[in-house]
Specification:
CATH topology: Alpha-Beta Plaits
Structural class: alpha+beta
Oligomer: single chain
Distance between the termini: 28 Å
Shape: elongated
Strand content: 15-25%
CATH class: Alpha Beta
Radius of gyration: 17 Å
Strand order of the largest sheet: 1-6
């Protein structure tokens, strides 16, 4: 009986892979973030990309975790959101 196990089983089993871009594709307007009361971007993002540090009064962006769902773009008009460079970002596998 022949062994039909793929050479690289990890590539066959993945659901979501990332190729991190060296440049952030999510650029919030920090001066407008200071005026924002609810900080909805920190709640709406399913990947927890946005975190507001109340002490430093600064929004941090962990763009490497972005699923490119666009939820932040829909809920907040103060985020300059573009897709990562070609070949970078998230890659979903059909299940």
């Amino acid at each position: 009986m022949e062994n039909n196990i793929p050479e690289n089983i990890e590539n066959k089993l993945y659901k979501v892979k990332y190729k991190t871009d060296s440049k952030c594709h999510l650029n919030p307007n920090n001066s407008k973030c200071l005026q924002c009361i609810d900080k909805v971007c920190t709640i709406i993002c399913p990947a927890n990309v946005y975190n507001y540090n109340e002490t430093e009064k600064k929004l941090t962006v962990s763009y490497e975790k972005c699923l490119e769902c666009g939820a932040c773009k829909l809920i907040c008009k103060n985020i300059d959101w573009v897709y990562p460079s070609s070949g970078k970002g998230v890659n979903f596998k059909n299940s």
